[in-house]
Amino acid sequence: MTTRRSFIKKTALALAGTSVLSNELFAARKKNEVLGIQLYSVRDEMTKDPKGTLKAIAEIGYKYVEHANYVNRKFYGFTPAEFKKILGDLGLQMPSGHTTMSTNAWDAAKNDFTESWIHTVEDAATMGQKYVISPWLDDAYRKNYDDLKKYMEVFNKSGELCRKHGMKFGYHNHDFEFTTTLNGQKVFDIILQNTDPNLVAQQLDIGNMYGAGGRALDIINQYPGKFELMHVKDEIKSAKGEMGGYESTILGKGVVGTKDVVDLARKKGGTSYFIIEQESYQGKAPIDCAKEDFDIMKKWGF
User: Fold this and answer.
1) How far is CA 263 from CA 31, 78, 155, 202, 297, in A?
2) What is this structure's pTM?
């Protein structure tokens, strides 16, 4: 099974009882909150039968999806116009998507973005996205503090480019942001402290960080209001787990304390986009996990 990390690398290279019950069952979803699913959760199904898989996602009750496949100006093999119609016919919207802003996105000599990244932003706008999210930071930019800090200027410039199209650039963490330090600072802190929040949104993946020692509750308290988007996950210990020996599981079944994190994000994190992502399934069918996770989030007031 292809891991999320190796998938991204390959893509980048190719381009009280009653009270509690009442709160859980009847909590009103805020008007501006979005509950969606990252389609990497059903990646194999999307490869084999994208239309059928999206139909199954819609039948579960999802209204929003987030893509993880944009190659040669196509989403899952479809042009932006084609994919937008497929989603629209199923009552789905795609407000965010993952495309790695890799080393081939920025031309340092010209001090400008390459045509490929400009196309990425343009096609996201055609899809009606609100966020263009890079889910990876190339090794080349995390060798020393000065290089990383300088590259954060490119993040801000990408935010400016996206803003011209009515969108916002975003970044999604893995685990290395919490294990790699430069000048005594964690990469995660360098990113947060050197990007303009008006231009660069943060999508907090609360599962990826766990094996690296990152705790989402602490991060939200440290940077209140900074996380417009969240990847909602839970984690269990695993011998094959890539992220520090952990792998994702059904929400509420692991060690992350997902509901507490989600509750804090709703109150203090500035979070409006809650995107479910489950990458490991413990023998269950991915689409069944997607339904379980959706039902749990609905129980939690979404």
Assistant:
1) 16, 37, 29, 18, 11
2) 0.92
Partners of 170 in beta bridges: 133, 201
CA angle in degrees (0–180, nearest 5) for 249-99-293: 20
Encode the chain (302 residues) as per-residue pLDDT tens digits.
456 666 666 666 655 444 444 444 445 567 799 999 999 999 999 999 999 999 999 999 999 999 999 999 999 999 999 999 999 999 999 999 999 999 999 999 999 999 999 999 999 999 999 999 999 999 999 999 999 999 999 999 999 999 999 999 999 999 999 999 999 999 999 999 999 999 999 999 999 999 999 999 999 999 999 999 999 999 999 988 788 999 999 999 999 999 999 999 999 999 999 999 999 999 999 999 999 999 999 999 99
Q: CATH number of the domain that 192 lies in? A: 3.20.20.150
Within 8 A by CB and 6+ apart from 280, the residues are 1, 238, 241, 247, 248, 249
Contact 272, 228 (CB under 8 A): yes
By the 10 Å C-beta count (0-12 exposed, 13-18 middle, 19+ buried), 299 is classed as: middle
CA torsion sign for 205, 208, 210, 213 is negative
For residue 16, what are its two tokens? 């009280």
Beta bridge partners of 107: 112
Q: How far apart are CA 135 and CA 158, in angstroms?
A: 14
**How many domains would you assign to the chain?**
1
Which residue, 141, 225, 137, is CA-closest to 173?
Answer: 137
State which residues form the domain around 90.
4-299
